[in-house]
Every structure is written in structure tokens, then in C-alpha cells.
Amino acid sequence: MFLSGLDEMDQKILMLLIQNARLSYSDIGEKTGISRVAVRARIQALEEKGIIEEYTTVINPQKINGAVSCYFEIETEPETLQEVIDILNKNESVTQIYRVTGKSKLHVHAVTAGQDEMEALIRGEIDCLPGIRNISCDTILSRIKDIKGLRL
Hints:
alpha+beta, four-stranded antiparallel beta sheet
């Protein structure tokens, strides 16, 4: 994949960090053939440019007993789209909100502690969103492939 502004070494560093963000500068240097100091400088430059946004721990909700994970497709009236985004953004169960193609459409991911909590989220919040044209919900049964971040 071609990304302007990223040379081959930056791409190698990013691939290593995607695989394991806990690698030390020394470990990355050994794998790329450059010094620890050079690795640090390149990573700092990538952070300053906003290419690397954060380092985080990813939790698999399917490994937590009872957790329920769902994707929602939500279509709203154009004039209520931002209000719906604001409401969903405040909900702690909502983990991702994407604006997708189509008129005023959102792709939303939510995780709850159990089925009762997911039903309460749907009935108490999702179903009550203003200006809703259409909602669909899919419960995630198993995670087959889940790539975090951009692949180079």
C-alpha cells in the first residue's frame, strides 16, 4: 500500500508496532537494522505528525463471560444526524461510531455486560434516538479476523 510521506523504514517500524506496540526501541532497531536512537526519533516524528495516534490495550469482549457485542446500522433524518451522534458518543456501551456512505447513515458498535443490558440499551436508547429512519442490529457470534489499525 502506498502512503505518501512514509518511507520504507517508517513502514517497517509501523508494522512492528502494529504486531506488538510494547516492543522496545532496541528491539525495533535490531529488527530494522537502525539504532535505538534513530528508532526513537522516527517514532516521535510519526507521533507528532498524528500518524501514530495512541498505544492501547485491546480487550476481546467475547472472552469475558456473558459479554454481548453488537453492530448497529442506523439511518437518520439528515437534520438529526449530529444529535444522534452526540447521544451515542456519550454512551459508555458504544465503542465505535462510523459515518458510512448513504444518506445520514452510521455504523455503531456496542458492548454490554450481558443480554439484559444490551436489550436495555436498544430499548432505552437506540430505539428512542430522534429522527430514526431505519435500524438494524447484528449480534457478533465469533471473531474470525479482527485487524487493529491500518495495515501497510
